[in-house]
User: Fold this.
Amino acid sequence: MNSDKHKTQGIGRREFLSGLSAVATGSALVLGDSSSVERVSSTDGASAAPLPMIRLGGHSIARLVAGSNPISGYSYMGPILDRHMKEYFTSEQTTEFLWKCEKAGINTHQFSSPEQMAGVFRTLRERGSKMKFICLHAGGPEQNSIEQVVKDTQPIAIIHHGGVTDRLFREGKSREVHDFVKRVHDAGVLAGVSAHNPNCIKQAANEGWEVDLFMTCFYYLTRTPEETEKMPPVVTVQIGYPFFASDPLDMVKVVRQVEQPCLGFKILAAGRMCGSDQKVEAAFKFAFEYLKPIDGVIVGMYPRYSDQIRQNAEHTRKFGKPRST
Assistant:
């Protein structure tokens, strides 16, 4: 665990639940150490300003991580856009995308398909890339073994898949997730848990799991129909999934109480907050104001029609940089 390093950023697990009510709703946290930054090249080869950095174990990563859903063809917008994304992200295009991300200062990619990405990673390394990788893993017998994933892709961390986490916790099988964390540590890499339901993160923190990091979804997309019916009729927008406007604040209230670094994902509501440049900027501003100084964000990008790599990097430099209260 990295808890000793970050004691001053969080609270002890015994104080976790009682501390939630006292969470500030503004951006009063002072951002952490920015000494671990590197000057990088932009996508056109020119020198680019460094991105703010955080630590995951012994690794220094940018606060902006490139996500995997567009690469895997998961648009959360329906089968037509899914197909559009899959056709765009060939192995060659995926390699170029990650290469451009690295040149823009984004030095980490979260992926979910070792079979799809192992060859891409080999090509990148042959070209001299130093990109780091975080694997999202469902943990079931149908998945590649943790040891095989480590061998094939050399990730810095393996995270238990959020949708599976939510289901197992609901079924009273949280121990399976905890055992997964232990197996990942046995394989020699950082171990984490992803969840859409903030109560899963809360339980793991309360029970003192030896988790190195969490992936925390800004929207609770795995509610049961019964849970959904109880929600107030206020949604950001509903296309397939209901994205409730109150969800991001519910998650960050929990995030700001755990000691471990958290990587917030779906900060753009799976594209539903991308209707204008102003909405995208506001989403990044909210995320970095409400997350802890030691946290980052994972953002999927589909740069077919605009330079989302550059745009997202700029928002991260603007809102994720160290500042005083």
In short: Residues 277-290 form the longest helix (14 residues). The chain has 13 helices and 14 strands. The chain has one domain: 7-20+28-317.
